[in-house]
């Protein structure tokens, strides 16, 4: 009898034993606890789980509810769990089938098409657990992270297809990307460009109309000037603009804007003075690498944001991104995010062509802007070519008239290629 535990969590959650849906969860928290154990794949302390799901109750009541839920899970999927007096985890002898785990395994292998095929909807779509704000916060964070990674994969696929001159496939990937992020005007412009280059001018104009309708309805704004300009060029039958304005193979990381904090930094005077000293040296052309480390909740991100605020006030170009807790994050993803940030565009424009061509290995849209490069011989992907890319990246971040401050949050999750550079 097939009793493999399988969880489909991308989209509406579906939990099965073999081919049969598992029914009889005593509450949504019982279902959520199983999902949490499966996705995190860690051994959890009972006290931690009690707080995660019943933090609003007394310790005694929370532990009593946890015991009730664990008894329920033992009855439903007991052979897949390892429960003792102090901890709870998945059994190492019974590996479940989980779409989220497979999704991240494909990510590690850069198997972007397989990632996209698994993404049947947002993580735990429509699922809600009442009176468990800590679990809800974790769930929303995972939902945003996985959504972001799928958007990255689809954008990379569209960029690859366009580079291979398979415009029909590039259109298809871009359309899938828009279904995930329908208000992203960059993708709308990308799709308009692909349509025109594929001889589908009417489809490009229709895409503009769809873009206008969506952003007006959802955001209550008119399309961006870049979108309007592209529309007028297509309408008037003019040549296409440089692809760097319209085509991107991976969107920038989803990060909040840098706030200007009114409250002073409490207990961080020494660290702030050290950062400020490094910033002053940056202004006179002396680069530095600075690591801010410490336990969670100690204000590392706040300190870094204050540095970005100071840099912006001193005419320093700033760019920020973050790494994600997915094994094998997309290669060079943080660097690509930095390169695509608006403050870094003057630096790219100032870069010599020989180095810009190396950067095009990470930014396929540059190949669209310089079609003569597409048929040029390459030196392969050996150590020498890798070093050439590293040299080009260094020159790119040093180019341009302004000094730069680059922020990478959550370095511990960073891909190996970025760390090697």
Overview of the molecule:
- The chain has helices spanning about 30-40, 45-55, 60-75, 100-110, 110-120, 135-165, 165-180, 185-195, 200-220, 225-235, 270-285, 300-315, 335-340, 345-350, 355-360, 365-370, 385-400, 415-420; strands at about 5-10, 15, 20, 45, 80-85, 85-90, 95-100, 315-320, 405-410.
- The strands form three sheets. Strands 3-2-1-7 form a four-stranded mixed β-sheet. Strands 4-6-5 form a three-stranded antiparallel β-sheet.
- The protein starts with a strand and ends with a helix.
- A hairpin with a 2-residue loop joins β2 and β3 (about 20).
- Helix content is about 50%, strand content about 10%.
- It folds into three domains: about 5-100, Arc Repressor Mutant, subunit A, CATH 1.10.10.10; about 145-245, Alpha Horseshoe (Serine Threonine Protein Phosphatase 5, Tetratricopeptide repeat); about 270-370 and about 380-420, no CATH class.
- It is an alpha/beta fold and about 425 residues long.
- α4 (about 100-110) runs antiparallel to α5 (about 110-120) and α8 (about 185-195) runs parallel beside α10.
- The radius of gyration is 25 Å and the shape is globular.
- The protein contains 18 helices and nine strands.
How are the elements arranged and paired?
Elements: E1 5-8, E2 14-17, E3 20-21, H1 28-40, E4 44-45, H2 46-54, H3 59-77, E5 81-83, E6 87-90, E7 97-98, H4 99-108, H5 112-118, H6 133-163, H7 167-180, H8 185-197, H9 201-219, H10 225-235, H11 269-283, H12 300-313, E8 317-322, H13 333-340, H14 345-349, H15 353-359, H16 365-369, H17 383-398, E9 404-409, H18 416-420
Parallel strand pairs: 1-7, 8-9
Antiparallel strand pairs: 1-2, 2-3, 4-6, 5-6
């Amino acid at each position: 009898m097939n009793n493999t535990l399988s969880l489909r969590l991308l989209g509406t959650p579906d939990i099965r034993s073999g081919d049969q849906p598992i029914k009889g969860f005593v509450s949504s928290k019982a279902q959520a606890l199983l999902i949490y154990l499966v996705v995190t794949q860690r051994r959890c302390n009972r006290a931690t789980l009690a707080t995660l799901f019943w933090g609003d109750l007394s310790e005694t009541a929370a532990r009593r509810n946890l015991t009730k839920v664990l008894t329920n899970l033992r009855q439903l999927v007991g052979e897949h769990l390892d429960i003792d007096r102090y901890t709870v985890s998945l059994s190492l002898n019974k590996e479940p089938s989980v779409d989220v785990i497979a999704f991240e395994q494909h990510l590690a292998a850069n198997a972007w098409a397989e990632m996209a095929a698994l993404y049947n909807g947002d993580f735990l779509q429509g699922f809600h657990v009442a009176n468990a704000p800590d679990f809800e916060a974790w769930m929303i964070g995972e939902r945003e992270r996985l959504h972001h990674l799928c958007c990255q994969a689809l954008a990379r696929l569209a960029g690859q297809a366009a580079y291979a001159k398979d415009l029909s496939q590039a259109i298809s990937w871009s359309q899938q990307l828009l279904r995930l992020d329908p208000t992203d005007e960059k993708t709308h412009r990308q799709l308009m460009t692909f349509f025109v280059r594929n001889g589908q001018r009417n489809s490009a104009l229709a895409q503009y109309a769809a873009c206008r309708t969506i952003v007006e309805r959802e955001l209550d704004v008119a399309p961006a000037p870049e979108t309007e300009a592209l529309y007028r060029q297509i309408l008037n039958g003019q040549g296409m603009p440089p692809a760097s304005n319209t085509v991107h193979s991976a969107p920038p990381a989803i990060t909040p804007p840098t706030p200007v904090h009114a409250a002073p930094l409490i207990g961080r005077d020494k660290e702030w003075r050290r950062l400020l000293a490094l910033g002053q040296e940056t202004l006179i052309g002396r680069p530095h690498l600075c690591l801010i480390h410490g336990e969670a909740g100690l204000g590392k991100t706040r300190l870094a944001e204050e540095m970005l605020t100071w840099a912006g006030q001193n005419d320093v170009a700033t760019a920020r991104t973050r790494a994600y807790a997915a094994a094998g994050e997309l290669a060079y993803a943080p660097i690509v995010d930095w390169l695509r940030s608006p403050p870094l565009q003057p630096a790219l424009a100032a870069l010599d062509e020989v180095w810009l061509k190396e950067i095009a290995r990470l930014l396929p849209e540059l190949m669209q802007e310089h079609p003569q490069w597409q048929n040029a011989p390459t030196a392969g992907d050996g150590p020498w070519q890798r070093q050439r890319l590293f040299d080009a990246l260094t020159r790119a971040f040093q180019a341009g008239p302004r000094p730069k401050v680059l922020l990478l949050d959550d370095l511990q999750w960073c891909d190996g290629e970025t760390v090697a550079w």
